[in-house]
What we know:
mainly beta
Amino acid sequence: MIKIRYLLIVSFLFCSNCLFAQSVPAWGGGADQKDISFGFSFSYVSSYFKIDKKADWRKPYIDNDGNKITDSVKSIGSPSSQGFAVGFLTRFRITEHLEARVTPSLIFADRNLDYTYNTPSQNTSKPVQATQVDLPISIKLKSDRIGDFRAYILGGIKYSQAIGSHVNSDAGLSLIDKHVKNVNSFASYEAGLGCDIYFEFFKLSPEIKLSNSFGNVLLPENHPYSTPLNRLGLHTLMFSLYFE
């Protein structure tokens, strides 16, 4: 009977210690205790163009010699295209619930424009090459910490710069083989939400973010695929994992 009592006491103490240990919040590598901290990220990228077409966008394309290059256009669309990004994080602590972030990333994500014509054999899809560097600057508003979890929202702007120029990438091609091109640099606004999950030696932050470009990202040219377009806006969805 005495042995059973000792066993119950030891079991109770062990369980109490386990429960107490589980209730202690993880340190998270001390990231929140620093005024400046650093990290890195991996992101899934999905993007498409918002298309604004000219009033006469359906017209067949006629070259300078009067030759009919394409038939009348039936539709122009931009399906979602997938890509990925790798980046870095620099965090600046402002208050307990507010911080500023700079998160430069290298983006690998081509976009597509689909053209359909009255002559089906002319239907085509034109990829718009887009390897670029993004430089977002955002403000992050955080909730109170509950155990090892904290939610947040963020908003900001970013500057995008293409790597390498595609201006003359199709210089030797015929009109029917020309590419649609974007300007080399543009700005966007973005907003998102996520959560901080604290572990013993680091903090993990899953995040989803939407961005839309300012102005026109289309580089206007005189060929069958650029001429019908008035402007292009870029819409991007990013799902990221930040390790800090």
